[in-house]
Amino acid sequence: MAVTDLKPTICILHSRVSETNPQGEVTRLLAEWSSGDQSALNKMMPLVYAELHRIARRAWNQHPQNNTLQPTALINEAYLKLANAENASFQDRCHFFAVACKAMRQILVNHAKSRLSDKRGHGAAHVSLDDVEPAVHEEAAEIVALHEALEALHAVDPRKSMVVEMRYFGGLSIEETAEAMGVSVRTVHRDWRLARSWLIREMNRESS
Amino acid sequence: MNLPPAWEEIERLYHEALELPVGERNVLLARASPALRQEVESLLEADSEDGLLAAPPTHVVADLLDSQPNGLAPGQRVADYEVESLISVGGMGEVYLARDREGRPVALKILRRHLIASAQAVYRFETEARAASALCHPNIVTVYQSGESPAGLFIAMEWVDGSTFRAIMDAGQVEIAQAVDWGGQAARALSAAHAAGILHRDMKPENIMLRKDGVVKILDFGLARDGGAVGPEPSSMGASGTISGTLSGTLLYMPPEILRGETATSASDIFSLGAVLYELTAGHHPFAGETLLDVFEAIECRTVAAITSLRNGVPREVDRLILRMLDRSPGGRPSASEVCDVLGHSTAP
User: Fold this and answer.
1) Cβ contacts (< 8 Å) between B207 and chain A: which residues?
2) Are B94 and A129 within 8 A, CB to CB?
3) Of A27, A69, A170, B52, which residue is 20 to 30 A from B76 by alpha carbon distance?
4) What is the number of helices (H) and of strands (E) in chain B?
């Protein structure tokens, strides 16, 4: 996976906090989580989820041609907006990325599932449009299968499943993943490689 | 004691093996217990597969970001056209009824760029636009304009007020005389296209329409071959999805040489049109089957029953013509102009 840098357009997209004030809320929840309150994570998730959604929609409306928007750009944007970035501790930032990648996974898996269950009509075709299976369907099927395999991997080795979550669903680079997880770059490299092999094997088994 | 190997052991051996050249791994693995060895070997095998996790899921992200997941709104403009209503939805886009600046109806086909797996599909779409606009024939849908808009790639073409052959056949039996007339019109379109070096490559009842005034219109012209009017395809097939997608829609009308992976020729279009005409006249498809494999086998091996044995009133020369169009050997099939001649002179009851 290529290292996905922040795209310049995304920085422009950064805007004021909207109607509600989720920023203070997220900052507070991050602090609570850091001091050991695990329930803070669950409370934070829907806020992050909603924000990622909003950013995604706005990004599209402002830059309809920008079809290559990366998840990592969304997460960075959400971080700037939700967390009080200037005052947040390094620890908070790591936690935020962990939550955001989880939320991103949820968003993408939900969307992939709805895409797959979406039975497209083949009715009164004036012109056929179904000559080629759209890429998004192929990718959606892969996302759902991967999501399930990743849950199995979580039972075997939670850290490796988290590495995949951050890199694939969150779009973070090896270095960003290492930083967010507080482990070495070498560990992420090794975890990623083994996790990938394990997941491919698992998905091959499932499909055969 | 046959405990499954510990995860830590698997992990250690896996990474040790990865550090060795492929040829030297066996020596290392041979020292491990059979269960551990099997685990690590299967992981190393998976490691050599590429594809999965190679790139972030950009298509799904882009799809998620699509501000118009439900298509274009009435009144929206695409180039010179104003969208009126949605006609049909496909996997990669939509077809709309739209109006040009003079208020005339046009069919507007939109292909969403982010939904497309391969450059191949975009190429096919663009070539379709060029191929069709290179053809000017009363039985071929006219393309007015094509290009790119924020909504995606678009083709604006003649609006055909009518039904597809598929819809007509679904509605009931077709009169023989009508089938002969429609077949003749479709063959005239193919004859003109073939003379211009353009193949359709996807003739099927979904791609042929009957306008309310009785004029047959062929849609979705594909790529040129031989004649070179439109240039060759960049590669024969795209991703695996391309193949499956193409097969599922078109398999029943594919000639055996295409199923075998050979290059399409004008005779391939004739075979497909023959299958459509057989279905129109006989009332059922010549190669119908329960499964894909049945259909494959039927196209490859089945002796097609004479239509006269299934339905009264089919002129002998028409029956013979359609069976010749379905000849397994491309060389045994009539040309499009020969099909026009026979159908044009046939006197159906």
Assistant:
1) 128
2) yes
3) A69
4) 13, 9
Among the listed residues A22, A29, A14, the one whose alpha carbon sits nearest the alpha carbon of residue A80:
A14
Asked, for residue B31, whether it belongs to a domain, the answer is no
Higher pLDDT, B4 or B322: B322
Angle at B71 between CA B205 and CA A125, to 5 degrees: 5
Who has greater pLDDT, A84 or A150? A150
Mean pLDDT for all residues in chain B: 82
Set of chain A residues whose Cβ sits within 8 Å of the Cβ of B126 = none
CB A193 within 8 A of CB B18: yes
At a CB cut-off of 8 Å and minimum separation 6, what does B120 contact? Answer: A132, B233, B234, B235, B237, B238, B242
- Neighbouring C-beta atoms of residue B207, cutoff 10 Å: 27
Same domain, B259 and B314: yes
Whether residues B114 and A108 touch (CB distance < 8 A) is answered with: no
One domain, residues B209 and B332? yes
Q: Band the pLDDT of A17: cuts 50, 70, 90.
A: very low
Dump pLDDT digits (tens) for A47-68: 777 777 777 666 656 655 544 4
DSSP string covering B112-180, please? -GGG---HHHHHHHHHHHHHHHT---TTBPPEEEEEEETTEEEEEEE---EEEHHHHHHH-PPPHHHHH
Q: Please say whether the beta carbons of A69 and A15 come within 8 A.
A: no
Q: Does residue B177 sit in the same domain as residue B149?
A: no
pLDDT in the model for residue A1:
31
- Better-predicted residue by pLDDT, B59 or A197: A197
Would the pTM count as exceeding 0.90? Answer: no
Q: What total of structural domains would you count in chain B?
A: 2
Between A62 and B337, residue with greater pLDDT: B337
Active-site residue, from B161, B202, B226, B341 = B202
How far apart are the C-alpha atoms of B58 and B336, rounded to whole Å? 45
Chain CA centroid to CA B80, Å: 29
CATH number for the domain harbouring residue B98? 3.30.200.20
Question: For residues A110 and B64, what is the distance between their CA atoms, to the nearest angstrom?
Answer: 10
Counting Cβ atoms within 10 Å, is residue B264 exposed (0-12), middle (13-18) or buried (19+)?
A: buried
B66 is catalytic: no
Q: How many CB pairs under 8 A join A and B?
A: 206
- Over range B293-306, report the average pLDDT: 86
Q: Which of B125, B158, B191 is the last residue of a domain?
A: B158
The reported pLDDT for the residue numbered A45 is 76
Q: What is the model's pLDDT at position B223?
A: 46
Radius of gyration of chain B (CA): 26
pLDDT tens-digit readout, B228-277: 333 223 333 332 223 333 444 467 888 998 888 888 899 999 999 999 99
- Domain, as residue range, for B89: 58-158
Say if residue B221 is in the same domain as residue B243. yes
Are the Cβ atoms of A107 and B121 closer than 8 angstroms?
A: no
What does the DSSP assignment read for A12-32? Answer: HH-----SS-HHHHHHHHHHH
